[in-house]
Here is the input.
Amino acid sequence: MSMSRRTVIASALAATAGIGGITAAAQAGATEPRRRTDAAPAASPVGDVVGKITVGYQGWFACKGDGAPINSWWHWSQNGGQPPSPSNTTIASWPDMKEYTRSYPTAYGNLGNGQQAALFSSWDQQTVDTHFRWMRENNCDTAALQRFNPVGGEGPTRDAMAAKVRQSAETYGRKFYIMYDVSGWTSMQQQIKDDWTSKMKAYTSSGAYAKQNGKPVVCIWGFGFSDPGRDFQAAACLDVVNWFKSQGCYVIGGVPTHWRAGTDDSRPGFSDVYHAFNMISPWMVGRISNVSQADQFLRDLNTPDLADCAAHGIDYQPCVIPGDLQSRARAHGDLMWRQFYNLVGIKVQGFYISMFDEFNEGNQIAKTAETGADVPAGSGIFALDEDGTSCSSDYYLRLTSDGGRMLKGQLALTATRPTKPRV
Here is the structure.
């Protein structure tokens, strides 16, 4: 089973002051960040990622009995051979199940409303269709389909998920691209090339496959991280980036938060790798948990990151997170909106939302349980109203839509969140 990004990078940041190097002064309170008015022009014109909202799409949930080759409660349970229960779970947030036509009973007790606690499987085409319909309804332009080591046991399921995502993207008028996650992929340098050539490249023939500057988009997430799960040498990583570029691809790098300095979660000596990408998208999950930290990141990381990218002709696509619901970081949308406001203010080239469907890490924007009536009774899993504010299950989808409108100039830059928690 693929590793959690949050788990494998946590140790790399343990020595920093606060989350992701945030200072104590910054954590004390939020201040209005200075607006930048002289941002450099984008390296690329508007395309399927520049000027657009991209959402990370895992598609990595399966259930026993769904027909998936993996035949497991994939990413729902610690022991995938058994249904999720209070003692056997990876679930951080509970999905709103109302729009799924097929579900699978768990070993949790009933929901607070008395209904059976059941979950969806990403293997069902109706699940993927539902998710891409939500993307269309909420102006999420492009989905980055996560692809972990396809040579391992989850490979056949991952292969089929790519076909399901293509079908849904074509049906609902969304774009998608392949986002390789190199976590734990020991023979990555050659196998990633073989996988693209023999399997994934064929998807670029779809009208739904994302293009930027006329080139098919590929993302590689994980080069340069200072943890054992991605122990690659810089030369091998640079070879892979340049190989994809030689194949005519526009290559995005999912890079460490501190990529520019080469410290904390970034290995030193990777500057040439980072600057070889066409677009840079630094990781943010687990780095901030309140508005003051978002402001500190704007000053100390986002603004100089953007300047570095502009100086090297690279597009900049920062991560935007809704916040970990189980850690009570969301502040009913204020954390996410502050990031939208800050980043539109410095004129970034696009947004990467982490993530669309990551219910097992609590960072999802997909429809989520609204109240205690919608989660298993006594489970301790928080619903969207955890801070006392009633939110509709689609609230973070709507918030993302408004953030995208502000990015595209369809909504004036405003620090005041225009999205109501409940319509």
Q: What stands out?
A: The chain has ten helices and twelve strands. The first strand starts at residue 53 and ends at 57. Residues 6-30, 34-39 have pLDDT under 50 and may be disordered. The first helix runs from residue 5 to 10.
